[in-house]
Amino acid sequence: MPVLFYPDAPLPPHLEYWEGLDLDNNTAHLVDEPWRYFEPFLASRGYTLCWKYYSREKPETPIRPRALKYPVAQDPFRPRSREGFVHLFDNTDQSANQTGIHQTTGWLTQCASLKMAYDAQDRVCALKALHNSRSRAEIDIITFLNSPKMRACADNHTIPLLDKVVTEEWTFIVMPYWPRSVQTCIPWEVEDYFNRLAQALEGLAFMHRHGIVHRDISIGNMLLNVHYGVPGVYSSFARRNIALAYIDLGCACRFPAGSDPATWVGTGYWGTMDHAAPEIPRGDSRHSQPYHLPPVDVYALGSVFTRALSWEQIYCKTFGNPDGLPTAAHQVLREFVPGYVALLERMKDPDPTRRPTAFMALQECNALRDTLDPSIRFAPPGGYPEICHLRQRSSQL
């Protein structure tokens, strides 16, 4: 009897809770089966699923290098036809013809309902399967944030929604695949730290202004449109137009436009434990007290950027400064810009009433940025000099 796929047969009952298959050791081995079921249908809509195997019996999906030659989208949040999604290799790098984003991503994903796929132009996309009833809130929120009116706003840092493939039970949202989290790039200069933080605060303030609370801000849910194998990746974020985007709105809440943010409350445990605010209950949360939601997002964001700064310090201490430079940007930041860390600490204040709003934090971030001496804010072409020379120059200002 031939195996039937969508739309000729329903998804088998044992796969119905698709998004939770990887959460149970008894079903984790089934994570590929729902994708196999929808694979012919998605192919008919122009999406070729990417498979990665480590055996000779099941070959991986061949690399399609055509998209590596596309120029990077001028507006990363509104990529046009035949524009690339991420910064890859410089055009002068001959290895661009043999390798690319695929060499390090392996098309591996962190959840069962997320899969990489090629679109009709051979660009790598991320497909996320959302149940039409269980995930209705997430579908509606990402659709709203990608409406023409919202997408036209420069401070909207939600991952672009390229397409929606809708079936009776499931909606597949199609997004550009941005491969690097906010933590996995080493800033070249102090300006990069402010550029990255300002983008994140701007995007969060935008969501809050429109009644949306993310509730799951984490390192893995804030992505950059850059591949870490880029030659010169340690150059300025701003000069390369490297963008930051929020993903995964599965925990998000939406409140009526114009309502008082002071009334936006929630209960129970939501989000990523590593970045959860202290007012969020741990353990059994059935009888937890309501808490104010916007400060929870602000706390998580401060926690993510504190963790990223610590990771960059550890990385440089372990492997050396980028390009063998005598002084890394994080060293300059720590010594000459104490206000940056102080802002993150205020965002993580244990008392939620003392945390700044996302908009207030953004204003403070930009004000501090504007007060910096150019010799501290921007690195010269060869990188920052020895820290002792910077100290001497700073004392003369």
UniProtKB/TrEMBL annotation:
Residues 74-376 form the Protein kinase domain. The keyword Transferase applies. Keywords: Kinase, Transferase. The keyword Chaperone does not apply. GO terms for molecular function: ATP binding; protein kinase activity. Gene3D superfamilies: Transferase(Phosphotransferase) domain 1. InterPro entries: Kinase-like_dom_sf (IPR011009), Prot_kinase_dom (IPR000719), Tyr_kinase_AS (IPR008266). It comes from the Eukaryota. This is Protein kinase domain-containing protein. It comes from Mycena venus. The lineage of its organism: Eukaryota, Fungi, Dikarya, Basidiomycota, Agaricomycotina.
